[in-house]
Amino acid sequence: MRTPRRGRSSSGALDISAETENLDLYEGSARYYDIWHEEYKDDIRFFLDLAERTGGPVLDCMSGTGRVLIPFAEAGYEVTGVDRSPAMLDVCATKVSFLSPQEEARVAIVQADIREMDLGRKFKLVFVPYASFLHLLDTKDQEAALRRIRDHLDDDGLFSFVVFSPRLDRPEQLLRHRGTKLTPQGEVISWFEAQTFDRKARRTTVHYFIDISRQDRELRRVTACFTIRYMPYLEALELLGSCGLRVLETYGDWNFGPFTEESDMMVFVAERSP
Asked: Which CATH architecture has domain 40-166+231-272?
């Protein structure tokens, strides 16, 4: 929903605040997602290392703009990306079109919700990149997604995903400026983020404020809001087990470091239960 913010105030003064667009998270941030995440490659190396153990084909669940999918195609793997956001997949398809013909032939992009996906095949490696799984807020949705993932996992395949540790020492409210960048189109993008942490529910609600400006246009603001839910270690183990997945390895970072009480994340590697 677009809200015009330019006009005269009751006092007659000119209001020059930005025109604001309140958008769905993925619709609102798809165009700018890679600008802010292009330097984040830690999980890519981790998943590629797993792929060296399993081989392909590979399933990238909640694949978004193809941040992880593209490097897999470039590395020679047959890879399928699944995401429910048309806006994210449009960006991904554009990026895939710039691959070589051989690399592009290795890629399949499917618009689907991972809670309901039915691709009619199995994969040697399945993963959910970054912390996208945390967008599933209740146990019913998490179980539905994990059961569909299990159904797509080969008998000797591996599944991996990450959960942020629910740190109780974090502030209940946080406001920060994520940075300012210049796009090739001459836009100046400033990203602000406000977080509210509900300790009892183990949920964080995040508001994005993305200010876009350029010399020949008025300032525009895109806002988006989403909530993620944290899981303690034992809850994650129980959830995976109830969905027919057995945890083989748990790491505390993307470098295969050990998981400890001080770790900020839990990176799980699992297989199908017998």
From this structure: 3-Layer(aba) Sandwich (3.40)
